[in-house]
Amino acid sequence: MMPVLQLGPLTIQTVPIILLISLWIGLNQIEKHASKYNTQANLITNLVLLGLVAGLLGARLAYLLVYRDAFTGNLLGIFSLSPETLNLSGGLLCGFIGGLIYTQKKHMNPWQTLDALTPGLCVMMIGFGLANLASGDAYGIPTTVPWAIELWGESRHPTQIYQVVLACIVTWTVWPTGTCPLRWKQITYQPGVTFLLFVSANSLGIILFSAFLGDITPNFSGIKPVQLIAWITLAASLYFLDKKLVED
Amino acid sequence: MHKFSKRSLIILIAAAGWIAYSSYFITLPSQVNISAPKEGFIAPNFELDSGDGSKIQLEKLRGYPIVINFWASWCPPCRAEMPALQRVYEEYKDQNLHILAVNLTDQDNKQSIEKFIQSNGLTFPVLFDYLGDTANTYRVKALPTTFFINKYGIISDIIIGGPMTESLIQSKIEKMLQDGS
Questions:
Q1: Would an 8 Å CB–CB cutoff place B12 in contact with chain A?
Q2: Which of A119, A247, B8, B139 has its CA at a distance of 20 to 30 angstroms from the CA of residue B176?
């Protein structure tokens, strides 16, 4: 666990650095493989950047709405660079709406666009796992297994490592130039299949590793909400995947 | 209407089975008694000198919302955010908010500390971590680092670095007050 890097007098927070590097590598990979999905690299890059800007604005606005009293006497605080004053749900919603408007305006095929975004999403998933490893977030439940790690006062399941390993397996499964035997060459490049495979494999991974997460309170008769959401996402992605395979 | 394939149905049933198995057999122990410098855990206890000979013990403040700010007088962002902390303290002290400014005295000198306290008119307690033990317990790797602790003694937020704006501090206190209500 290394939340900050001390380089002489300079203190660097590792989580934003890991996420920025993942984003940069992800964008590079999206551009590199865009032509394989019959999409234009510059359109996809613009879509990602626009989605990010819309997401950041939305995240800040949503945070302002939730804690508006804290900002009424100090309006300059709205423009603070602090990442702690961002709301994740608001950011995701606005980023999605911004991206949707852009794809409609540029007449981009939604399935081809989602496929083209998949290599970047794979890299980001690995990045999220590494960021959790650095910060100690998404920690596991206490255990006595031999591979347990000492974290937050207990021997725990190394869930951050599980997350990275699962993200790597998902990446190997759907990577455009990969050699995974699970990829059926004749269907992989049909629009939407790559993305739906990514969503299915990722949801399955989340269902598996979330069982060992220690920072989630179970609801719904002992079931963790994240597992339930991942199962519904898995069902939806498999439904569309089956539909696509029948169509093809 | 389109149906699921046999392969998809097997995957969905296996996934549902794993969810049921894990929710029943892989139990989540309570973190209520574990102390660690991390959101969701009990804030580690400490007892520190407040400069006038008296000592302040964190556990004795259980029941009140607390902000612990680790700082040093040579650290520019720590100096920059202290007036905002003072203003927020003035605003929330009627709601029993406690702010504890823990000075890393092993890296600082008393003269500069006292001069800084006086020039900024700080009215909340400034505590002296002479050996750096409390900073070590809280795994403080960068200055300033601020912990927001709700009335149950549970850490609700950690801000590494600064300077924090007044609105950021207020929003975290509001969240902490909501968590503890």
A1: yes
A2: B139
Tell whether B159 is within 8 A of chain A (Cβ): yes
pLDDT digits (tens, 9 = 90+) for B81-140: 999 999 999 999 898 999 999 999 998 988 999 999 999 899 999 999 999 999 999 999
Return the amino acid letter for B134.
Answer: T
How far does the CA of residue B54 sit from the closest CA of chain A (Å)?
Answer: 30
Residue A15 φ then ψ, to 5°: -60, -55
Mutate to test the interface with B, among A12, A84, A166 (most CBs of B within 10 A): A84
Rounded Cα–Cα distance for residues B104 and B137 (Å): 13
- Which member of B23, B143, B174 has the closest CB to residue A67? B174
In this prediction, residues A216-237 reach a mean pLDDT of 86
- Distance (Å, whole) CA A117 – CA B126: 51
CA dihedral (A75, A79, A84, A88) positive or negative: positive
- Is the ipTM reported for this complex over the cut 0.90? no
Q: Which residue in B167, B168, B169, B176 has the most chain A C-beta atoms within 10 A of its own C-beta, making it the best mutation to test that interface? A: B167
In chain B, residues with a C-beta closer than 8 Å to the C-beta of A13 are 142, 160-161
The predicted model scores a pTM of: 0.86
Domain B33-179: CATH class, spelled out: alpha beta
Q: What is the pLDDT of residues A101-114, one digit of tens each?
A: 999 999 999 999 99
Neighbouring C-alpha atoms within 13 Å toward the C-beta of B165? 18
